[in-house]
Amino acid sequence: MDDRVLVSVRGLEKRYGPGCGSCRELTGPDRGTNVCPQCGTVVAMAGVSFDVREGEILGVVGESGSGKSTLVQCIYFDQEATRGEIRFRGQNNDDDILGLPRSEKRKLRGRLMGMVYQNPLRGLRMDITSGANVAEKLLEADLFHYGRIRARAAELLARTEIPPAYIDRLPRSLSGGMQQRIQIAKALANNPPLILLDEVTSGLDVSVQARVLDLIRELQRELAVSMIVVSHDMGVIRLLADRTLVMKDGCVVEQGLTDQVLEDPQHSYTQLLVQSAL
Amino acid sequence: MTTTMMSCQGLSKAFVMHTRGGTRIQAFHDVSFGLSEGEFVGVSGPSGAGKSSLLKCLYRTYLPTAGSVWYTDGAAETRDLASAPEQAILRLRRQEIGYISQFFPVIPRVSALDTISNSMVLRGFPREVSIQRARDLLERLAIPRPLWDLSPSTFSGGEKQRINIIHAVIARPRLLLLDEPTASLDAASAQEAVSLIRELKKQGTAMIGIFHDRSLLMSLSDQVLAMEAA
Predict the structure, then answer these.
(1) In the predicted model, is pLDDT for residue B1 greater than 70?
(2) A interface test, pick of B81, B90, B94 with most A CB neighbours within 10 Å
(3) Mutant choice from A1, A53, A264, A271 vs B, greatest count of B C-beta within 10 A
(4) Is the pLDDT of residue B48 over 70?
(5) Contact between B140 and B169 (Cβ < 8 Å)
(6) Measured between alpha carbons, how far is A193 from A198 in angstroms, rounded to an integer?
(7) If you measure CA to CA, which chain B residue comes closest to A55?
(8) Which of A167, B50, B55, B179 gives 20 to 30 Å between its CA and that of A203?
């Protein structure tokens, strides 16, 4: 692996259904569907390959059902990829980590990755305090000392601009913007080199959205973490991403510098997407 | 003797509009020129001749359709910007290639002072040095002090353009692309901007520039690249 590459994804694929010999051929952007007409299998994602470098923000855009959430969920091991390889520099001798046993993957995830979901219900437990939510992630990386966990949780909540008193409150009782901040604090907990953000501002109103985006930008600059930012919003991608992948019907149809993808889109779908943006 | 920094060979750009039944629009065709350290290439031609498109292709905001742009960077490594990997382009943009576009893409909610000093910090200068130079330049281009801590998104067209210029020149790029940098400025700030550009040129920055003011273009240029409507 190139020494600046942090994560390398090759031929990633996710299917729901039995699959047949024709799935790949009969689905994808050229066919305009991700459902195989022969066997009914949903090919949520196929043949996705890219690298993420250290400190880089990679954007992923595409419409609903294009496979962009599936992509980050497979990287985060929330879903099991049907096929493909993921290499993480310095891990497993730079060899594929998808094939590792489940317990091993859980450990890697705790140390290497943080995830922020579109819906806080997915990323947070609403029946335990904000502090405990962050603590959960710290436990994943084998930090067990109560005082140190609490101190680190307080530090992270402060860093994500959450009032100190909120540490003992249930996320349920907080606003959507605050819940997203707690998710971000949790994702950052173990100083992971990679953060995955899946439509994190989609459910927020515009002014809150802006402040969460500012926070993400600041943290990224300060910590120099790598990020994969999934969004259907071109504005979010333009603001955050250095490079961008465009997905449609489970496949990457185009990738390039973000300004190039937005100003000189090559693929017909990207041209349509850019023209449709407000 | 100065060595060539950039050699643009047979560069062409056409847009294929898939949403318009594959209509092909030729922006410019077969452009070639060479550029050395401290040299200024002025681009002239009527509206629609592809002048801005040429600059965008050199910056890789547009993907050239044909031809090559050989660029020798500060570490004496030569590569074709038309086909170089994205990471290489990002690094060059951060470290040595500046671009003053007609419309400055400001990040909302970031102050003018931070916006411009950050571009210098990104090139590895200490924060204090960067902020000091940013202040000097804001002063020099007569941006009123109360505006320094506000986001340029709230500025007038002329003020925004001055921020755009400062942003591009602050870290003294090796190569600077200028697209009508003085178009929306009053006479006094235009003059100050031009003197900044001349200073930079004297210090060795190579430039490719579009100016609608013909006499200004001629006075800055070491060579003129005349483009015609495609």
Answers:
(1) no
(2) B90
(3) A264
(4) yes
(5) no
(6) 17
(7) B87
(8) A167
A266–B86 CB contact, under 8 Å: no
Q: Read out DSSP for B198-227?
A: HHHHHTT-EEEEE-S-HHHHHHH-SEEEE-
Confidence (pLDDT) at A205: 84
ipTM: 0.91
A79-90 residue pLDDT tens: 999 999 999 999
- Give me the residue spans of the domains in chain B: 35-226
CA distance A259 to chain B (A): 6
Task: Give A99's Cβ-side CA count (13 Å radius).
Answer: 8
CATH number at residue A242: 3.40.50.300
**Tally of domains within chain A:** 1
Give per-residue pLDDT as tens, B90-109: 999 999 999 998 877 777 88
Q: How many CB pairs under 8 A join A and B?
A: 43
Is A224:A55 a contact under the CB 8 Å cutoff? yes
Residues of B with a Cβ under 8 Å from any A Cβ are: 15, 17-19, 56, 60-63, 86-87, 89-90, 105, 107-109
Distance from C-alpha of B73 to C-alpha of B64, rounded to nearest angstrom: 20
In the sheet that B206-210 helps form, which strands lie side by side, from edge to edge?
B97-100, B175-179, B206-210, B40-44, B223-226
- Round to whole Å and give the CA distance between A214 and A56: 16
| B61–A256 C-beta distance less than 8 A | no
Confidence of residue B230 (pLDDT cuts 50, 70, 90): low
Q: And the tokens for A50?
A: 């890219």
* pTM score over 0.95: no
With beta carbons less than 8 A apart as the criterion, state whether A71 and A47 touch. Answer: no
Handedness of CA A51, A54, A56, A60 (dihedral sign): positive
**So what's the architecture of B35-226 in CATH?**
3-Layer(aba) Sandwich (3.40)
B60, B62, B86, best to mutate vs chain A, most A CBs in 10 Å: B86
- Percentage with pLDDT > 70 across chain A: 99
Q: Do B62 and A260 touch (CB under 8 A)?
A: yes
Q: How many CA atoms lie within 13 A of B140 on its CB side?
A: 19
- Residue in chain B closest to A215 (alpha carbons) equals B109
Q: What share of chain A is helix, strand, coil (3-state, %, to 5)?
A: 40, 25, 35
